[in-house]
Write a structure and sequence with these properties.
Elements (H helix, E strand, L loop, with lengths): L9 H8 L11 E2 L2 H9 L8 E5 L5 H8 L3 E6 L5 H10 L4 E5 L7 H5 L4 E6 L5 H9 L8 E9 H8 L9 H9 E9 L4 E2 L6 E8 L8 H13 L5 H4 L7 H7 L13 H21 L1
Parallel strand pairs: 2-3, 2-5, 3-4, 5-6
Antiparallel strand pairs: 1-8, 6-9, 7-9
Helix pairs in contact: 2-3, 8-12, 9-12
Length: about 290
């Protein structure tokens, strides 16, 4: 699918600009333009959409997004890739903005500037989870983005979409399930990348819930940290580190004291977090 946009094939772009993928930046370039178009389409209808892309590298996914009608804001930390991205921008006048910077430090809500936006990205593996947690922790909620369509290592993707009872269910699954619905759209074989990673990757599509169950995010994080930190233990044991009487906390949240973390649905963790906040407040009032 090198005829996607009349631009040179990606291998030629990489050779011309000397773009070897850097392990230190978690880079694995996607060169198959059929595949980048499939990732782009997994985010939904793109005509006139505003898309924020993280880690575009030589611009394979960027080109697919633009060819399908999106306006793209691409955030790239690797200065070596900027010239190649500017060549793509010249081919699509006024539709590609290249922001040189670290995605973990960029204010993406400000870049969206009030427009309905979505995030579509083949994320650098070394910052994928911190970025996702940041997006799920956005305040106020609902967030500035309409959806996230993101590439992760398969293992991380399974943790994001995991349901109670699954071996993959943990803190990341609870945080995601509380604030969003998530599904794995499709897997991507290592051979699709240059250099090929040692693991299969997955594209995950995440849509924010307009009205998640009321809960303090930090309290939910504290509860899940304690519960999954000792996931083999019953909750009456693992929640002892929370500074309140574990039995009373579990009773207040209507959660079985003999249950283990992996058995508790998101609603149960929210109930525990809210009960913990109430009990801590009562403790302070009596101190």
């Amino acid at each position: 699918m090198s005829a996607l946009d009349d631009l040179p094939p990606l291998r030629e772009v990489i050779r011309e600009h000397g773009l070897s993928a850097l392990k230190s930046l978690g880079q694995n370039f996607l060169l198959d333009l059929n595949l980048t178009a499939r990732i782009a389409r997994a985010s939904g209808e793109l005509k006139d959409a505003t898309v924020i892309e993280v880690g575009p590298g030589p611009g394979g996914l960027t080109r697919a997004l633009l060819a399908l009608g999106a306006t793209v804001i691409a955030i790239e930390r690797d200065a070596r890739c900027i010239a190649a991205l500017h060549e793509v921008a010249a081919h699509y006048p006024g539709r590609l903005t290249v922001v040189e910077g670290d995605a973990l430090a960029v204010d993406m809500a400000a870049l969206a500037d009030g427009r309905p936006a979505r995030v579509v990205a083949n994320l650098p593996y070394n910052i994928a989870t911190p970025l996702l947690i940041g997006w799920l922790s956005t305040e106020p909620w609902p967030p500035w983005y309409d959806s996230l369509t993101l590439m992760f290592q398969r293992e991380v993707a399974e943790r994001i979409v995991a349901a109670p009872g699954s071996e993959h269910y943990g803190r990341l699954g609870v945080l995601t399930g509380w604030r969003a619905s998530a599904r794995i759209a499709f897997d991507v074989a290592p051979s699709a990348f240059v250099p090929p990673p040692k693991v299969t990757s997955s594209v995950v599509h995440i849509v924010p819930r307009p009205a998640p169950l009321p809960c303090e995010r930090r309290a939910l994080e504290r509860i899940t940290e304690a519960a999954f930190g000792q996931r083999r233990k019953m909750l009456r044991q693992s929640l002892k580190s929370l500074g309140v009487e574990a039995g009373a906390l579990l009773e207040a949240a209507s959660v079985e004291p003999t249950a283990r973390a992996e058995e508790i649905p998101v609603e149960g963790f929210v109930a525990l977090a809210n009960a913990w906040v109430t009990m801590r407040g009562a403790q302070k009032a009596h101190a």
